[in-house]
Specification:
alpha/beta; 52% helix; 15% strand; 29 helices; globular; 14 strands; eight-stranded mixed beta sheet; 663 residues
Length: 663
């Protein structure tokens, strides 16, 4: 059954059952009359973008336009009802999947979670309330006119044990500013479900580098990451990823505020001092709610004892949080991946540069991992580091496809040395889906990695992205939301979430997610570029140009940005996009002339901008053939929509086959 996203306004008359029959009929007719007379109702009906679902004491209006439509209609209804104080109604608004169906009486009807949840939202209100779900509120946050009207109510438990985060929409003129009864506490029942962090949850803040040699920052960062990696192997704990905790490096924020932002109950702080072959590690575990110290320890050890220090810290934290550990988890947190302190030091340097791979010196990642492997050929994580280096770049079409055999060789070597290293399964999944086009094997790798490390956010984020290639958007979004819980502040995860919403054509949600990303990281070029793509699909030309110009400027292409903006002002949106395409085509040709690798996909996207669809179609078979993420997104990427009406597109698409079973 094919669903689409509907924007639902659910309305009912409060106290309907207590009215006399003739009053019920009069009130229902008046409510229908008021709703039908609103400008939003008439516009949507005229465009064929409105579906109505009558109920006994009200009804639902499903708008197939934008999340704003039901809100505007609700306000128009509320304004008109001020003339009819005897007609007491409540309204609930939600955006979600809906489907037109035929019921048992062979009448047209509407089904889907969008309708059901909108009714639950409404049920939480009293007379005069206009309540909206958090999903709708997130969409409305994009528009300045709605922000002052949204008032967070918290979370309410509704039918079937479902918890809904709701907002009350009101102003001085419309709505009901009073707290709904279901959100009030009485002696009999507490309806509010206060979201609290799990007791067994932790964030490890970046360790302070106290070494006299400040270049040893890589070492402090490495110890911090390895302790996190050990903790994340414990299924009974919720562990926030390193990339999100990095946001709080050298912060002056209170522990309680940091914990609230990360959704954890405890915080680990630490410092590292390295001098010669000696190392001092000091850590303290803090209860975020009352700032109480749960446990603290100082370790003065030789450098070759560092793995024992990391294992002891992870074990003591698990003990303090009363986490249950399996035998496999105890072995995992006690593991010593290498006996060579020199190899380990090189590996930490490689990891440090890997985390900053967009910065100059990217090649040093490979060099450090190769040196670590040369010193200890049995060092599994170092082999996997090399696989990640090649597979990530090949999947993103930065390196040519001929590096895939190296990526596979290194990950298989890593797993032959240690088949319990979770990160290796992320690299293996990349090899299987992008290079081998073997979905069954990739899925098996994802699941095995998550089994070994339930807190590894990268696996969930990558798995979600791969599910989106197949059009399995509900599963993809669920995986991405899990990744966001574990790593809420990582720019990559935030952008990928917006990308999946873009692929699923949920443009309002995608815009909301990318707006949040840019609130956190205003200089993120990828977020600006995708936001521009979303705006273009929503026919928001000025906003699209603005974000694309920001992305170009951040990528050092200020001249392209200047020309794009000037052309838009002088000749309009389509001319500006064509001009940008021509400029980018010259840059791609120049890059290829220098002997650099240029993926066919980049040419396809540029030709679409130029309006040269035949040129784009001519290169589409090459794009489908190349083993990168651009080929796999061909089924779902809206940017390729101008090509989809051509019969050749489906023929080319059919050449991209993913193995569903493995022999």
């Amino acid at each position: 059954m094919k669903f689409e996203i509907g924007h639902v306004l659910f309305i009912d008359i409060v106290g309907y059952s207590k009215l006399l029959i003739h009053e019920q009929l009069e009130y229902l007719e008046k409510l229908r009359e008021v709703a039908r007379a609103t400008e939003t109702f008439r516009t949507a009906q005229r465009e064929g973008k409105l579906t109505r679902l009558p109920t006994g004491d009200g009804g639902a209006l499903v708008f197939h336009t934008s999340p704003e439509a039901p809100v505007k209609c609700a306000m128009e209804i509320a304004c008109e009802l001020k003339k009819h104080p005897e007609l007491r109604v409540r309204m609930g608004i939600h955006s979600g999947p809906v489907k037109e169906v035929t019921d048992l009486s062979e009448q047209g009807n509407i089904a889907g979670a969008g309708i059901n949840i909108a009714q639950r939202v409404m049920d939480c209100g009293d007379a005069g309330h206009i309540l909206v779900s958090k999903r709708v509120a997130d969409d409305l946050e994009n528009y300045a006119q709605w922000r002052p009207l949204l008032h967070d109510l918290g979370t309410c438990e509704v039918k079937h044990g479902i918890s809904l985060a709701l907002f009350n929409l009101y102003s001085d003129e419309i709505g009901n500013a009073e707290q709904p009864k279901k959100f009030r506490t009485d002696e009999r029942k507490i309806d509010i479900v206060t979201p609290t962090a799990p007791r067994k949850s932790i964030a490890v803040l970046p360790f302070e580098n106290l070494s006299e040699d400040k270049a040893n920052i890589y070492f402090a960062d490495g110890i911090h990451e390895e302790i996190l990696t050990r903790l994340s192997r414990i299924r009974d704990l919720k562990v926030i990823s390193r990339t999100s905790t990095q946001r709080f490096k050298n912060t002056v924020e209170q522990i309680s505020d940091i914990a609230k932002q990360l959704g954890v109950a405890t915080i680990l702080e630490g410092s590292v001092r390295k001098a010669g072959d000696k190392v001092r590690v000091h850590v303290q575990l803090i209860d975020a709610e009352n700032d109480a110290h749960l446990w603290a320890e100082r370790y003065d050890r030789q450098l070759d004892d560092i793995f024992e220090v990391e294992s002891d810290i992870a074990g003591k934290i698990a003990e303090a949080l009363q986490a249950t550990l399996t035998g496999a988890e105890r072995r995992a947190i006690a593991a010593r991946p290498t006996k060579s302190t020199e190899a380990h030091d090189l590996y930490l340097k490689g990891r440090y540069h890997w985390r900053n791979f967009y910065a100059p010196g990217y090649e040093r990642v490979r060099e450090y991992f190769e040196q670590a492997v040369a010193l200890d050929a049995s060092y599994a994580p170092a082999h996997n580091g090399l696989s990640l280096y090649y597979s990530w770049a090949a999947a993103n079409a930065i390196f040519p496809p001929d590096v895939w055999p190296l990526a596979e060789e290194y990950v298989r070597k890593s797993l032959s040395l240690d088949d319990t290293w979770p990160e290796a399964y992320n690299a293996l999944a990349a090899v299987e889906i992008y290079y081998k086009r073997n979905w069954a094997a990739a899925k098996r790798a994802f699941h095995r990695g998550m089994e070994l490390d339930p807190n590894f956010s990268d696996l969930h984020a990558h798995y979600g992205l791969c599910l989106s290639y197949l059009g399995r958007f509900e599963e993809a979004i669920a995986q991405e939301e899990r990744a966001m819980q574990l790593d809420p502040f990582f720019p990559g995860t935030n952008v990928h979430y917006g990308t999946i919403l873009f692929f699923s054509r949920q443009y309002d949600r995608a815009a909301s997610q990318l707006a949040k990303t840019l609130d956190l990281y205003p200089d993120n070029a990828a977020a600006h570029e995708y936001f521009g793509n979303v705006c273009a699909q929503r026919a928001m030309s000025h906003e699209a140009i603005t974000h694309w110009c920001s992305a170009l400027n951040l990528n050092g292409q200020s001249e392209d940005a200047r020309v794009l903006e000037q052309t838009f002002k002088a000749a309009g949106f389509d001319a500006a996009v064509r001009t940008l395409g021509e400029s980018q085509l010259e840059e791609l040709d120049a890059k290829r002339a220098r002997g650099e690798y240029v993926a066919a996909a980049h040419y396809v996207f540029v030709h679409i901008k130029r309006g040269k669809l035949e040129d784009a179609l001519a290169l589409l078979p090459k794009m489908a053939e190349e083993p990168d993420w651009f080929a796999l997104q061909m089924r779902v990427n809206p940017i390729l929509d101008p090509l989809r009406s051509n019969p050749r597109f489906d023929e080319i698409l059919d050449t991209i086959t993913l193995k569903e079973t493995s022999k």
